[in-house]
Amino acid sequence: MAIKLWLIGTATLAAGVLAAALTTSLAAAGSEGVDHLNRSRSLAALGSEPQCEAYSGLPVHWRSDAQAGMVHLHGGEFVLGSNAGYEDERPAGDGKTKVGGFWIDQTDVTNAQFASFVKATGYISDAERQGGGAVFHQPTLEELNARPLAWWRWVAGASWRHPQGPASDLSGLASQPVTLVTQADALAYARWLGRDLPSEAEWEYAGKAGHDGAELDTAPRDARGKPTANYWQGVFPLVNNNEDGHVGLSPVGCYAANDFKLYDMVGNAWEWTKDVYSGPHQSHSNGDTASVAPAGRRHITPMVIKGGSFLCARDYCVRYRASSREQQEADLPASHIGFRTILRDS
Predict the structure, then answer these.
(1) Of the four, 109, 145, 173, 287, which is 20 to 30 A from 268 by CA?
(2) What percent of the chain has pLDDT over 90?
(3) How many Cα atoms within 13 Å fall on the side-chain side of residue 62?
(4) Contacts (Cβ under 8 Å, ≥6 apart) of 41
(5) Mean pLDDT of 36-55
(6) How much is the mean pLDDT over the chain?
(7) Is residue 7 one of the residues assigned to a domain?
(8) By C-alpha distance, which of 154, 215, 201 is closest to 180?
(9) pLDDT for the residue 292
(10) pLDDT, tens digit (0-9, with 9 covering 90-100), for 152-162
(11) Is residue 2 domain-resident?
């Protein structure tokens, strides 16, 4: 078979629907990471399949509350990076890093939220200007033998509005993460709300949620062995066993939140940060999406993306971890990358 799978060791590496109101209070939830500013805040009830399926994709009090859909983290010190993953994840020195307090979206920005932004501003995304984007599809063995990285295609007309190409639309996808957005698109949305993209350190602080144990570098599964995030189970890219219940992107919030009450910090969609990628430069572990872009296309600065996606598997990528990081050209729209926003304390 004309493909090399990167075989990497894996040892290191309240259901119920409240569909009527879809609100819950963090006051009852409690966590060391989320502080008094979250008391009595109403947020979407998420964390199970019935709840994420019922979610509209718009947070409670959307556009009437400056922090709609966000939780506040008081900040603190943590270890940035991991010694159990890839070379580019190694901590610098002891890794101890401090971040200040900030508000952060509980979920990835959804198609419904991005559509609200576009309706209000008339914004045209980079994929629409460029005429397409890099879109994943599950190849056949024959396709894999025919060309490298056969799971990526440049699809003319693909954009956040048409995630699989011109014939597709967002019907039934309002609560999925918006994808096929560049870093500039993500920043434009964030600034519309008076927010920003997280730094790599801010994102990882939120993703680790106060933990620093070995569990951070293992595939996310519960005590019964069931996946607790949307990532690839099976032999990538030919066989997806679908143990997590989703093939491709899932709606936001289908799995339990981390201890900072944040959903999908691991898996589903990679997330843009505001930081330029530095450190050891490894090849793209999801396959270099730039390789399928139109010939002669100019690529700009690689930025850090965090969290892994539905494409990360135990035999390929293995980046379904809070410490994971990847590089992505800032101007390259792809179907496995979204974002969330933050609002720093003044």
Answers:
(1) 145
(2) 73
(3) 16
(4) 25, 26, 27, 67, 71
(5) 92
(6) 88
(7) no
(8) 154
(9) 87
(10) 999 999 999 99
(11) no
| pLDDT(299) > 90 | no
String of DSSP letters for 270-303: EEEEEEEP-SS-PPPTT--GGGGSPTTPPP--EE
pLDDT, greater one: 202 or 291: 202
User: Residue 221: exposed, middle, or buried by beta-carbon count in 10 A (0-12, 13-18, 19+)?
Assistant: middle
Q: In total, how many domains does the chain have?
A: 1
Cα 269 → chain centroid: 3
What CATH number is associated with residue 263?
3.90.1580.10
Q: Is the peptide bond before 237 cis (omega within 30 degrees of 0)?
A: yes
Tell me if 96 sits within 8 A of 223, measured CB to CB.
no
Structure tokens at 66: 């400056």
pLDDT for position 169: 98
In which domain, by residue range, is 50 found?
24-344
- Distances from the Cα of 334 to the Cα of 74, 209, 253, 325, angstroms: 33, 27, 21, 16
**Helix (H/G/I), strand (E/B), else coil: 325:** strand
Q: Which two tokens stand for residue 167?
A: 């014939």
Calculate ∠ Cα 189-52-73, nearest 5°.
55
Any domain includes 1: no
**Residue 222 is encoded by which pair of tokens?**
């519960």
231 CB-contact burial (10 Å; exposed 0-12 / middle 13-18 / buried 19+): buried
